[in-house]
Amino acid sequence: MKAVLLLTLSFLPLFAFFTNLPLVLSDEVEQVVDINANPIFPGSTYYIIPAIRGPPGGGVKLGLTSNTNCPVTVLQDFSEVIRGLPVRFKIPGISPGIIFTGTPLEIEFARKPGCTESSKWVVFVDNEIQKACVGIGGPKDHPGQQTMSGTFHIQKYKFGYKLVFCVNGTSTCLDIGRFDAKNGESGRRLNLTEHEAFDLVFVEASDYEAIIKSVV
């Protein structure tokens, strides 16, 4: 079914460049675990890194893009040795809760820039590159660009997991992939995609150094 049948008129500009938006949530449900096979929990801090170490790059972080003066765009660092910034997961309305695949989640960085209202992940349309990208904050942090409210989900994928974004009030969900804007940015954009998703794993922040030493 075409996305235009699922979205309200106010949402049409955001997904004008997507035609057949698939519902990507799986029926198989299992508890989400970190790289050590320990369950991940809301409130704890984790690094998001590629499931396969090496040329795919490093962890996720914040960066400057387009005409912004505040680092409000989520990027994956080009370098595999960069861990990025730790994130926290929150289950809306539930604390602490258990995180299963398909559980609706809010994601936020453990620290936020002083120039933004929050470190909570959102989706916004970058008018310059015409892609729906992952950022942080709210509409005031993305002036002149449309933002979308929704929840993130974790699903099993290839060697690890993938993140999925579901638009509030609809059954429309899209995978989170990566896009190299090739305009001098310090990493790859995280963006909504119908193509290959970002194959990733979670590392508890306190365990990161020990894990990296064991694989180097």
UniProtKB/TrEMBL annotation:
Pfam families: Kunitz_legume. CDD domains: beta-trefoil_STI_MP4-like (cd23377). Residues 1-26 form the signal peptide. GO terms for molecular function: serine-type endopeptidase inhibitor activity. Keywords: Disulfide bond, Protease inhibitor, Serine protease inhibitor, Signal. It comes from the Eukaryota. SMART domains: STI. PANTHER family: KUNITZ FAMILY TRYPSIN AND PROTEASE INHIBITOR PROTEIN, KUNITZ TRYPSIN INHIBITOR 2. This is Kunitz-type trypsin inhibitor-like 2 protein.
